[in-house]
Specification:
The protein has 11 helices and 9 strands. The termini are far apart. By secondary structure, the chain is an alpha/beta fold. A 7-stranded parallel β-sheet has the order 1-4-5-6-7-8-9, with helices on both faces. It has a two-stranded parallel ribbon with strand order 2-3. The chain has helices at about 45-55, 60-65, 70-75, 110-120, 140-150, 170-175, 195, 205-215, 235-245, 275-285, 305-315, and strands at about 80, 85, 95-100, 125-130, 155-160, 180-185, 220-230, 250-255, 290-295. Helix 4 (about 110-120) packs parallel to helix 5 (about 140-150). The structure holds iron/sulfur cluster. Iron/sulfur cluster binds near residues 61 and 69.
């Protein structure tokens, strides 16, 4: 039996996913040849790693074991994960550590802003763990981080990828008031899989959250994504597209789910590239301004280039 231990943080041999340790192994099929990634061994990768560590920051690139880290960090594109490295939820797909998080670091917004400046980023993506333990779910900390980056790097566009702030009344409004350029909240999977894949979340709450962002501030671009290969049916993916368009979401990402360890949800299927291309075509037909659908699509992958295209698409639409 595999023992899933924490190999990322400084406390080795602590179970990274205590709630998953006693689960039976879930076996996934071998990866197909279209899932290829660049090894993380370039000078740019090393520079990015140094800046991340010097500022004491956590990245979702490392914590989630993202397959694109070699490519992204070589270009100095890192996605910072604020509010610690420990999440209060235990989603079946996610490699971020589960447990009771520590206190918030009041200096973290400044450190993130400083790292953004040092990396010279034109576009930054900030995400976080779920902080169900905090009264506001971390909304004020998110907003402070956006403001700190604006103050330090006024030309940098800011994309946030937030938790769902379930049962945290007023939290969303605090984050939206900080005026990020892009508000991303991932649905992760189709509604029929929520109880097994994302048990702490509610599908219609997430849809409504995205819809509320647009109602409060129509200037903010909204974005959401799902993983495929978790056993969903094609018609369910199309339904998700329709639900997101009903919430006026601008940008859709669809990527292949990859299993972090054998204690996580199995990959039920590797979706071939031509199926992703079909999803992309359909999503554009349904009215999304931007769509990224490919095996290695992740919500923060190429986010800067995509933001430029997203803004151009809106400008073209408004004439
Ligand atoms: S795709 Fe996103 S999470 Fe993955 S390495 Fe790139 S920036 Fe990090």
């Amino acid at each position: 039996m595999v023992v899933v231990v924490d190999t990322v943080s400084a406390t080795p041999l602590r179970p990274r996913h205590p709630e998953k340790v006693n689960r039976p192994d879930a076996l996934s099929p071998p990866k197909p040849d279209w899932i290829r990634v660049r090894a993380p061994n370039t000078r740019g990768y090393a520079d990015t790693r140094r800046i991340v560590k010097e500022n004491g920051l956590v990245t979702v690139c490392e914590e989630a074991g993202c397959p694109n880290i070699g490519e992204c960090w070589d270009k100095k594109h890192a996605t910072f994960m604020i509010m610690g490295d420990t999440c209060t939820r235990a989603c079946a797909f996610c490699n971020v550590k589960t447990g009771m998080p520590g206190a918030l670091d009041a200096l973290e917004p400044e450190h993130v802003a400083e790292a953004t400046f040092k990396l010279g980023l034109a576009h930054i993506v900030i995400t976080s763990v779920d902080r169900d333990d905090l009264a506001d779910g971390g909304a004020a900390h998110f907003a402070q981080t956006v403001r700190a980056i604006r103050a330090r790097c006024p030309a940098t566009t800011i994309e946030i990828l937030t938790p769902d702030f379930l049962r945290k009344d007023g939290a969303l409004e605090v984050v939206v008031a900080a005026k990020p350029d892009v508000f991303n909240h991932n649905l992760e999977t189709v509604p029929s899989h929520y109880l097994t894949v994302r048990p702490g979340a509610r599908y219609f709450h997430s849809i409504r959250l995205l819809q509320r962002v647009k109602e409060i501030d129509p200037d903010i671009f909204t974005k959401s994504g799902i993983m495929v290969g978790l056993g969903e049916e094609r018609h369910e993916v199309l339904q998700v597209m329709d639900d997101l368009r009903s919430a006026d979401v601008d940008f859709l990402t669809i990527g292949q789910y990859l299993q972090p360890t054998r204690k996580h949800h199995a990959v039920m299927r590797y979706v071939p590239p031509d199926e992703f291309a079909g999803y992309e075509k359909l999503a554009y037909a349904k009215g999304f301004l931007m769509v990224s659908a490919s095996p290695l699509t992740r919500s923060s992958h190429h986010a800067g280039d995509d933001f430029v295209r997203l803004r151009a698409a809106r400008a073209a639409l408004s004439g």
